[in-house]
Amino acid sequence: MVNKLNAQISLENFSSNLYLQMSAWAEIKGLDGSAAFLRKQAKEELDHMHRLFKYVYETGALPAIGETKAPPTEFKSISDLFQQVLDHEKLVTGKINKLMDSALKENDHSSVDFLQWYVSEQHEEEHTIQQVLDKIRIIGESGSGVYFIDRAIGEMLRKH
Ligand SMILES: [Fe+2]
Ligand SMILES: [Fe+2]
C-alpha cells in the first residue's frame, strides 16, 4: 500500500508541474484567464501531493517523492490544452480508483477513509474541466472566440 501511495505522490507532483507549465503557454499567448485558472490548478495538485505525503508519514511509513517526467511545453490550441487536462484527470481518477480497490481488498479502513476525499475531488475536477471544454465548444475558437473563451474561464475561476 505504501508503494502505491508513494506512486500517487509522484503523480500529483507531475500534475502540478503539468498545469504550471500549461499556464506558461497560456500566459505567452495572452490568455490571462486560462493562465490564472491553470496556476490555481497547479497549486491544488501540490496540496493533493502534500496531503498524501502527510498521510504516509502519519501511518509510520516513509513517504518518498519519485521521479517526475518533464511536462509538454507546446499545445496546438486552447481546446487541445484543456482536452489534455481532461485526459490527464481521467488517468488520475483511474489511479485513485485502483488505490481504493487495493485499500478495500486489504481491509485498510484508514486508507479507504483517506482516499474517499480523492474520489470526490476527482469527480469535482473532471466536472469542472468538462465545463471548460463545453464553453470552448459553444463559443468556438474562430475569430475573437478565443478571447471570449479565455474570459469565460477567468470568470469560472472567480466562482470556484
Ligand atoms: Fe490531484
Ligand atoms: Fe487534478
TrEMBL record:
Molecular function (GO) terms for this protein are: ferric iron binding; ferrous iron binding; ferroxidase activity; identical protein binding
* Positions bound to Fe cation: E12, E45, H48, E89, Q122
| Catalysis: reaction(s) | 4 Fe(2+) + O2 + 6 H2O = 4 iron(III) oxide-hydroxide + 12 H(+)
Keywords noted in UniProt: Cytoplasm, Iron, Iron storage, Metal-binding, Oxidoreductase
EC number(s) on record?
1.16.3.2
Task: Please name the InterPro entries in this protein's record.
Answer: Ferritin, Ferritin-like, Ferritin-like_diiron, Ferritin-like_SF, Ferritin_DPS_dom, Ferritin_prok
* Localization in the cell: Cytoplasm
Which family does the entry's similarity section mention? Belongs to the ferritin family. Prokaryotic subfamily.
Put simply, this protein is called Ferritin
Higher taxonomy: Bacteria, Pseudomonadati, Thermodesulfobacteriota, Desulfuromonadia, Desulfuromonadales
